[in-house]
Amino acid sequence: MAMIKTTCCVVGGGPAGMMLAFLLARAGVRVTVLEKHADFLRDFRGDTIHPSTLELMHELGLLDDFLKLPHSEVRELSGQIGDTHVTIADFRHLPTQCKFIALMPQWDFLDFLAERGKRYATFDLRMRAEAFDLIEEAGRIAGVRAKTPDGELDIRADLVVGCDGRHSIVRERAGLKVENLGAPMDVLWFRVSRREDDSNETFGHVETGRMMVMLNRNDYWQCAYVIAKGGIDAVKRAGLDRFRDAVVSMSPFLRDRIAEIKSWDDVKLLTVAVERLTRWYKPGLLCIGDAAHAMSPIGGVGVNLAVQDAVAAANILAEPLRAGGVTVEHLARVQQRRTLPMRIIQAMQIFIQNSFVSRMLAGDKRPKVPFAVRLLAWFPVLRRYPAYLVGLGIRREHVRTPEIAGK
What we know:
The protein has helices spanning 15-26, 51-59, 63-66, 106-117, 169-174, 232-238, 240-250, 302-323, 328-362, 371-378, 384-392, and strands at residues 2-11, 31-35, 48-49, 72-74, 76-81, 84-90, 101-103, 123-127, 130-137, 140-148, 151-162, 178-180, 185-193, 203-207, 210-216, 220-228, 268-270, 275-277, 281-282, 285-287, 293-294. Strands 1, 2, 8, 9, 10, 11, 19 and 20 form an 8-stranded mixed beta sheet that branches. Strands 6-5-14-15-16-13-17 form a 7-stranded mixed beta sheet. A 3-stranded antiparallel beta sheet has the order 3-7-4. It is built from 11 helices and 21 strands. The relative contact order is 0.19. Helix 8 runs antiparallel to helix 9 (328-362). The radius of gyration is 22 Å and the shape is globular. The two termini are 31 Å apart. It folds into 2 domains: 2-49 and 104-181 and 273-361, FAD/NAD(P)-binding domain; 185-228 and 231-270.
């Protein structure tokens, strides 16, 4: 079996993993990233880059180049509840360089970080390298075993960081305890072409027993149709025509192109989970992002919360990693730093799920606009508060790591 030695082994090349690896390499830490796929080209992933993440790109001096990538900009979030149109959030007053959410394919975001990371001699990205086990020695995690096209590979590391999502093999092999908080819904993702005379908005629509969100991706709509938890079999039994009719009932302007959904292969299921680890670490190992706390899609904040985790982890761990002295206390500081924002956001998501989403999906009457949403219509200044919460989150992180690595 081949073997390599590194300082930090990051398992998973998603937003948390790539941002952490980039920041550590930039700060002079030898880091190896294991990504099991050959590329980042997976559709219907979290494609929202919130103002908090855009501000980090500004702090890194990368914002101008980043915004040259194809993207669309969302300055307001709006929706339709029954027959009433409402504006939920207005990002134009945020204290940031970018007062909008950027909609960008996640693979472009990850490719951008990978390309910038490769400019540092301390950055090692290994594609088609799938972690399948941990190496444990003397009561601590000492590395990772991975499958590669050239055979199995041992990666010995001072620290292993699990960034491999809600189905994390790292946390499973480490035996970290998962607390499942429940979710009443799943989401069906699909795309339909967009015409020049369509609305420019990104919006959601709530009707009797149905919910759908449409994201404006310039030349197509990325659509999320919300169904009851475990309801995919019932939807498929009713037939594709019934599903297409339900979509058109929510957005009638799609009638002339709904046939673009040719089969169930064009519809992808996202099984929604809201869960978290009770402890994110053990000696030699740390989990962040979805591996530590899977979020509901409500608010689209999962990617950006994961990125904030990565920045906090880099700020706390870069110096002890360079010095070869990462302790359990350092790892505990990462969890302590990021637990409050995670718990607040999850609590709010669960409240919305239980008090609104569940009732809407089970309802047989046309929904009425909740009082809190009516307040946003009566007092537009209040739209700044949900914009701040969605756009910047709780406890923003800033880049504290220096750029000291050679290129």
